[in-house]
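User: C-alpha cells for this one?
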Amino acid sequence: MKDKGRCMGGKRCVRGNVYTSEYYEQKLKLLANSCDLSAAAMGSLIVCKLLDSRNFVRKTQESMNTIEHYWITADFDENNRVIYKQEMVEHIERKIIRHKNEYLDFPRERQLKFSYRNEHDLKLSLLARSCNLRKSELAALSLHYGLDSSEVVMYFQERYNIHPHLWVAPVQINGAVKYIFSP
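Assistant:
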C-alpha cells in the first residue's frame, strides 16, 4: 500500500469519476488510439491542459460564473506555470443567470476514471466553485470542450501521435464536430 494515492512517477494524485455520453467516449477513444494512450490518460491530459489555459478559464467563467463577487484569474508564476488567484471583487458587471451549456446538457451514459495531480485538482475545485458546478461536471465540460476543439486535438496529436495512419481531424458536420481519419 506504499503507492496508494500516487500516480505515475510517484507524484501525489487525486482520482475522480467523470460521466460522459457514448458520443464523446467514442471521440476520446479515437484520439487516444491515435496517440497510443489509454482513454483515461488522454482524458486526464485534456482536462489538465485546459485547466492550464488562461483563455479557457476566462471563457468558462464569463459564461458560467454565478457567484457575483467570486472570480478566478489565471496568471503565470516565476517558473512560467499557470497558477490561479482568487479575487473577491466588490462590483462586477457580469451575467449571473446560469443557463444550460451545450457541453453540460448530455446523457450520462459512460463513466470514466481520471487521475489528476494535486495542483490540477485544486484548480478544478476553485474553478468549479466559481462556476457553481461540481468538480466532475467541470471536468466533463472541459473534456467535451477539448474534444470539440481542433486546437486541442491537434496539440495532442502533434505531441503524442505515433501512428500516422490513425491521425484524426475534427470536422464540423451539421453543427456537430466529427472526427475523420486524415491521410
